[in-house]
Write a structure and sequence with these properties.
The chain has 251 residues and is of the alpha+beta class. The chain folds into two domains: 112 residues, Cytidine Deaminase, domain 2; 108 residues, endopeptidase domain like (from Nostoc punctiforme) (endopeptidase fold (from Nostoc punctiforme), Alpha-Beta Complex), CATH 3.90.1720.10. It has five helices and eleven strands; from the N terminus they run H-E-E-H-E-H-E-E-H-H-E-E-E-E-E-E. Helix 3 links the parallel strand 3 and strand 4. The C terminus is likely disordered.
Length: 251
C-alpha cells in the first residue's frame, strides 16, 4: 500500500492550489512528487499529463503513483458522492497503468485528505466509507475474495449510475470472472448473491459470510453485515467461484 509522507502531501497540496480551478496532475517517482503540465482540452474536468513531463520524470526512477485533483467541493453528478470519487476515466487509467492513483479534491482554499486507489486496499471490510468505483458493492466482494480467499477477481470500470444506462455489468461479467450459478437453497459461505436494488438491472452484490448473513456495501452507507432473508425479494441469482479448490477456509 502506498504511504504518503507529510512532505509529499504538502507538495501535492501546494501544486493543487496553484492550478485551481483546473485539475492538477503529477507523478510520484522515487519518493518525490513531480508536478506536471495538464494538457487536456478541458483541464477543469479532465487531465492529461504532458508526454515530455512523463518521459522526464520516469528517468529519475520507477513510477510509484499518479496524482490528480478534482477541483470542486461537491461532486457535480451527485452531492452525496465523495468529491474524490474516481470517474470511469480515472478507473480505466488506474487499470491501464497498474500503479496507485492518488485523488484529492479542493475548493481553491484547502485540499482534502488524499484518496489512494491501490490494489492492496487496507480499509476494513466492515465500516468502510462508500466511494463509488473503489469502495462499493463490487469492491467489497473483490476485497473479501482477495483478503479471505486469496482469489483476485478482475477490476471493473463502472461509471456512476451505470445501471440506469444500457450497461449490465454484473450480468455481462460474472461468468467471465470464473463463477457458476447455484440454486439459492444450496447457497453457502463465500458464495456471491446478485440483486436488483431499486433497479430493473442487476446492480448489487454481496458475499454470504454465515447462514442468513451477508457482507455488502450499499450506496452512501458504510459497509457491513446484514440478513440475507431481508433481501429475498431483490435476489436475482447466487453464484459460486468455479475453482472451489482454491477457496481457503473462511477467516
Amino acid at each position: 500500500m502506498l504511504t504518503l509522507s507529510s512532505e509529499l502531501r504538502q507538495s501535492i497540496s501546494k501544486h493543487v492550489l496553484a492550478e485551481y480551478p483546473n485539475e492538477a496532475c503529477g507523478l510520484i517517482v522515487a519518493g518525490k512528487y513531480i508536478s506536471c503540465k495538464n494538457t487536456a482540452e478541458e483541464p477543469k474536468t479532465n487531465f492529461r499529463i504532458a508526454a515530455e513531463d512523463y518521459a522526464e520524470a520516469i528517468v529519475s526512477g520507477s513510477l510509484q503513483a499518479v496524482v490528480h485533483s478534482h477541483p470542486f467541493a461537491t461532486h457535480p453528478l451527485n452531492p452525496r458522492l465523495d468529491p474524490r470519487t474516481p470517474s470511469a476515466t480515472d478507473q480505466q487509467a488506474w487499470i491501464d497503468l497498474n500503479v496507485p492513483f492518488v485523488i484529492v479534491n479542493t475548493n481553491g482554499e484547502s485540499v482534502s485528505a488524499p484518496l489512494v486507489l491501490d490494489d492492496d486496499n487496507p480499509s476494513d471490510l466492515i465500516g468502510r466509507d462508500f466511494i463509488h468505483g473503489y469502495q462499493d458493492c463490487y469492491a467489497i466482494v473483490r476485497d473479501y475474495y482477495r483478503t479471505r480467499l486469496g482469489i483476485v477477481l478482475p477490476k471493473q470500470v463502472r461509471g456512476w449510475e451505470w445501471w440506469a444506462t444500457e450497461q449490465t455489468l454484473y450480468e455481462d461479467n460474472w461468468q467471465l470472472a470464473g463463477f457458476v450459478e447455484v440454486p439459492l437453497i444450496e447457497a453457502q459461505v463465500n458464495d456471491v448473491v446478485l440483486f436488483k436494488v431499486a433497479s430493473k438491472t442487476t446492480n448489487h452484490a454481496a458475499v454470504i459470510t454465515a447462514p442468513d448473513e451477508i457482507l455488502h456495501h450499499l450506496f452512501y452507507r458504510p459497509s457491513g453485515r446484514d440478513n440475507l432473508s431481508k433481501w429475498h425479494k431483490q435476489i436475482v441469482r447466487v453464484i459460486r467461484y468455479a475453482d472451489a479448490a482454491k477457496q481457503a477456509p473462511n477467516k
